[in-house]
């Protein structure tokens, strides 16, 4: 903690420095804990032990708030905005004379590829009403998703709506909900998270993660692997079995779907089951972390 406070003091006044009230509150809570430990070492009573435990949670919460501000706050992009724009302009001018050639080459390679780049239109014919989907293997963090030309008039959905769908799904997942369906005036959105063993058989969580993820970082892999923690919360008593060798054999998958708003819940559930069962047959085993159907 001493090193942390020294670093925060040195960074004071920079663009990404911590607000003074956060550091002061953290320092105050840390002083309380040290005082409680000092009293406990002198008296060794249950009362002082309870005081330590009661002060630990506010301290951890304050430390989390400081970490979120320093590591997760989007304002950190301010630091990268100027050099990022300069780099973008430099690369653009250097590639300007080759853009048309590279676009033609890319589409040519796309059309000549095999299963991993199968036409989305042919695949979606078996899923009437389905506009888009995102399939994620959280064991390897690999993504399978159809390609979308968001600038085309034929594209039915915007990037903004797709990201809002992902944000909504992750928000409910962080609250402990593994399935959700919602809609607006144009589309129906759905998010599903499920578990399988190493043989591909579905696994039912031994307990619901609702209210169990309160102190776990937001979904993702930047602040530790959220999904491994989710597995440990859902299969707390699992030691070895279910064909998967304990927790290491539990695989987690996610599926986001966008349907036209007329699609019924039963239709969405049926499409979800079929997508989960067939998407890898269509795309093949990906060689990279992002595979576009």
UniProtKB/TrEMBL annotation:
What superkingdom does the record give?
Answer: Eukaryota
GO terms for MF: guanyl-nucleotide exchange factor activity
Q: Name one GO biological process term.
A: vesicle-mediated transport
Q: Which InterPro entries match?
A: FUZ/MON1/HPS1_longin_3, HPS1
GO-annotated cellular components: BLOC-3 complex
Domain FUZ/MON1/HPS1 third Longin positions = 129-281
Q: What's the name of the protein?
A: Hermansky-Pudlak syndrome 1 protein homolog isoform X1
Per the record, the gene is LOC103519253
